[in-house]
Write a structure and sequence with these properties.
Elements (H helix, E strand, L loop, with lengths): L25 E3 L2 E2 L15 E3 L1 H7 L5 E6 L5 E3 L6 E4 L5 E3 L13 E4 L6 E8 L5 E5 L6 E6 L4 E8 L5 E5 L9 E7 L1
Antiparallel strand pairs: 1-2, 3-4, 4-5, 6-14, 7-14, 8-13, 9-12, 9-14, 10-11, 10-13
Length: about 190
């Protein structure tokens, strides 16, 4: 198979960093022109990843998420920071032995009477080991938004408006009375 390559030092392909990259306004690798960065800029330009969707969620008008390197020189994306905007009303961690999460046939337990701000993600930490429904809406008009668990520790993307009521209910017809459940609302 190696006989198909010519002998000697060969140039199999170049990256032309002085040409315009097709589909962009970039004049060289790692430098994209916009109203803030033009061809007159000098020095090292920061490499970044375009991510308008996440930045729009963060409420910023920046065009790029900056990239940096860690101590070993590996490239990493600096994520858009989100803030915790609310917790459960009674206590950040719900002890279900004290306050049960109702059965699927019961009325959902109010977790947050009115969200302090719009929520884009929920961080769950669950030691109950059960499937828990997370609802929004007024009492007796709750709408299931998502189901977490059993034992889930993770971050879930959501869209909840400021002022919404959030409630919880077990997805089976038994009350949850063991374990702890924590929700952090991130906006």
């Amino acid at each position: 198979m190696t006989s198909s390559l010519p002998a000697g030092p060969n140039n199999i392909g170049d990256v032309d960093i002085l040409s315009v990259i097709p589909g962009t306004a970039a004049t060289n690798l790692g430098k994209a022109e916009d109203t803030l960065h033009t061809t007159g800029d000098v020095g090292v330009m920061g490499l970044a990843v375009r991510n308008d969707a996440d930045l729009a969620l963060a409420g910023t008008d920046l065009d790029y998420i900056p990239l940096s390197t860690d101590a070993l020189g590996r490239l990493r994306v600096n994520p858009v920071a989100f803030d915790v905007v609310d917790f459960l009303d009674t206590n950040p961690v719900l002890d279900t032995s004290t306050t049960n999460i109702p059965a699927s046939s019961g009325s959902p337990l109010t977790a947050v009477a009115s969200l302090a701000a719009a929520v884009k993600k929920i961080k769950t930490q669950d030691t109950t080991g059960f499937y828990i429904g997370i609802y929004t809406g007024a009492a007796a008009s709750e709408v299931l938004q998502l189901v977490s668990g059993p034992g889930e520790d993770g971050i879930i993307d959501v869209a909840m408006a400021a002022g919404e009521r959030v409630s919880l209910r077990h997805m089976k017809n038994t009350a949850i009375s063991t374990g702890e459940y924590c929700l952090q609302f991130i906006g």
